[in-house]
Amino acid sequence: MGKLKMKEQQISTMEHTAMRVSRVSIFVNLLLSVGKLAAGILASSGAMVSDAIHSASDVFSTIIVMIGIRMSGKAADREHPYGHERMECVAAILLAVVLALTGFKIGASGVEKIASGNYEELAVPGVLALAAAVISVVVKEWMYWYTRFYAKKIKSSALMADAWHHRSDSLSSIGAFIGIMGARLGFPVMDPLASVVICLFILKAAYDIFKDAIDKMVDRACDPELEKELKEFVLRQRGVEGIDLLRTRTFGSRIYVDVDIIADGRMTLKEAHGIAEHVHDEIEKEYDQVKHIMVHVNPA
């Protein structure tokens, strides 16, 4: 009962951290999107308006992340005896779709302006758009590292997806800066071309997020490095003479472990059970991301 209580408190702390990071993200993105939109309109920059739309999509995506994390933190029930962790993957998939749609819309607008061939009619962006691009790069890069730090700390795939969304916004602002600068130097086509580059960055981020979420939805094994680390950890436990089998699978942001250990065949059932229980408890204590461990004992 005590272990269950500790796990529930751990999940609650992780959820609280994710919600706090997400609220900061929403606040910053709202300020940035409004500022960039105003700068894009006042400075006549299509690239900056596209970048503002990208930042505005971050607000929506963060809300999706918050809903996914909140639902994934729900305790197991009769209909969902293994918990709701995969809801975080669903949130990440929705985020990837939103990102992809945003990218396509921005890219289509840029391609349309380039294909028109009327570059002389394109307005030359003002210096305000350049300043907005620089501010956006600095702020979004900080948001990427801030969100990434906590995503790794609580091992949240949805929060990590949101971090990469910040990074894609930072890269898109660099593209916007180059496009605006090019347009101001006498190459007006550079501004819509920057929108197309921004589109590619967004689509790449959407693909990476989608692939990671799908991998976790289909019970993909953990990284070989983590499995190797788990094996070495189990072998160091008292009474364990070897390992016949160790399998892992991801379940949302959590991990399930199945391990067949080798122990002295002359032990009593009670002694063998004690070793299995010890291995179970030590893994759970050492690895926060492990939700469930099944330990089977084979005689040496």
Strands of the biggest beta sheet: in what spatial order?
1-2-3
Which residues form runs of ≥5 with pLDDT under 50? Answer: none
What composes the largest sheet?
A: 3 strands, mixed
How much of the polypeptide forms β-strand, as a percent range? 5-15%
Cα distance spanning the termini: 33 Å
Round the Cα radius of gyration to an integer and report it: 25 Å
SSE arrangement, N to C:
HHHHHHHEEHE
Topology:
Layout: H1 2-42, H2 46-72, H3 87-116, H4 127-154, H5 157-184, H6 190-217, H7 224-235, E1 242-251, E2 254-263, H8 269-286, E3 290-299
Parallel strand pairs: 2-3
Antiparallel strand pairs: 1-2
Helix pairs in contact: 1-2, 1-4, 2-3, 2-5, 2-6, 3-5, 3-6, 4-5, 5-6
In short, what is this structure?
This protein has 300 residues and is mainly alpha-helical. Helix content is 71%, strand content 10%.
Describe this structure in words.
- By secondary structure, this protein is mainly alpha-helical.
- It is 71% helix and 10% strand.
- It is built from 8 helices and 3 strands.
- It has helices at residues 2-42, 46-72, 87-116, 127-154, 157-184, 190-217, 224-235, 269-286; strands at 242-251, 254-263, 290-299.
- It is elongated, with a radius of gyration of 25 Å.
Keywords:
single chain; mainly alpha; 71% helix; 300 residues; 3 strands; elongated
